[in-house]
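Practice problem: Aspartyl/glutamyl-tRNA(Asn/Gln) amidotransferase subunit B
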Amino acid sequence: MEFTEVVSRFDPVMGMEVHVELHTNTKMFCGCPTAFGAEPNTQVCPVCIGLPGALPVANRQAVEWAIKIGLALNCSIAPYSRFARKNYFYPDQPKNYQISQYDEPIAHDGYLDVQLEDGSTWRVDIERAHMEEDTGKSTHVGSATGRIHGATHSLLDFNRAGVPLIEIVSKPIVGAGERAPEIARAYVSALRDLLKSLDVSDVRMDQGSMRCDANVSLMPKGATEFGTRTETKNVNSLRSVEIAVRHEMCRQADVLESGGEVVLETRHFHESDGTTTAGRPKESAEDYRYFPEPDLAPVEPTEELIESIRATLPELPWVRRARVQADWGVSDEEMRDLVNAGALDLILATVDAGAPPAEARSWWVSYLTQQANKRGVELDALAITPAQLARVIELVAEGKLTNKLGRQVVDAVLDGEGEPDQIVADKGLEVVRDDSALQKAVDDALAAQPDIADKIRSGKVQAAGAIVGAVMKATRGQADPARVKELVIAACS
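Answer key — structure tokens:
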């Protein structure tokens, strides 16, 4: 069914569950490191792989960051909360239960105001934000889709098992109508920006440190009872969140209009074509047989601790945007473009590293955006840091690189060839400032194009551009174009 017809016949209801890995140095309940990308099963111990007799100890930093997230989401912080065992079997859950929180989460009843593309604001109410541990990772080998169906065998990596995780659960989002997919994306985007500003997670959706489960159901127009929902699991990009919600709305409408019933189930999202397919029947809370975790004491933060954490909250992203917009004098549309492109935080970080705002904006929204598109990654996934780009901009400003050479250095950084200064030295890219070497290149170019030289001598100074271009080519772009032009004019005068 076409989307416009869907929203004319049904009211969508959404519930967003976002899982965020905290970038603490160690895991939630043991001292194992949490670094991403280590060799499989090298960051494990008896606690995180669930060996008998191993006892967990809560990570204080993770608890404090959970409180910090709750405060930033305008939540109430519980003076008493406790961990629970969520019982289920899956191969990448080594204990056969997950330590989580159930009826007594650390943060509850908050909200997040989300700015939409037209500048309007939508408030998403937060049910809870609770602490838990992540699972391991399964790799299914031999399957065409990478999923367990059709696989010949599976490999398990428990490095991620036990990494601190915060699950942020929204209350039902109703009344969104045709804007439901946009609101879903804007909410996850705002949440990512907020968590990044808190410096509690790298929120890399491409690496799984932030994952979204999108619950969607439909109600016929005029109905008051929610429809049966589906939960699309582990959607890993902002664009995919929007696409997945839109697809589920259309798919469910087809089912209902044909006289069928929507099944309460999890669903898999397919990046290749933007569709979802059935996963497994959805469990209820009773199925997990929650009970209090007997090996961990309750969490009882004092009011003094909560207020001390509140005092560390940074300027919120949307407040900072308003300030930066006023400082830079850019329009609402330009600011939205920077935010939607994922460029604003990168630009600000580049400015903080010493680059002028205009140059930082130019690099990120033009050349680096092109490189991100070319490489098929998000802008913030490019292998260059704001500090590295700021150094390239500094080298250009100092006259040691031209813009063209600067782009060569940036390309080399993106390809993992080292730091900017090292690349300049290794490749011999610094601008040639030796006038004797430049003069020889100028003389050679003039001798090779005597007709151009005559035009310059006759007063047609604009013709010098051809000679400058020849010199730049001869010097592999390492000459200073302004100095070359001066030498060309002087040679023809």
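Discussion: The longest strand covers residues 121-133. Students who identified this feature from the tokens alone can consider the problem solved.
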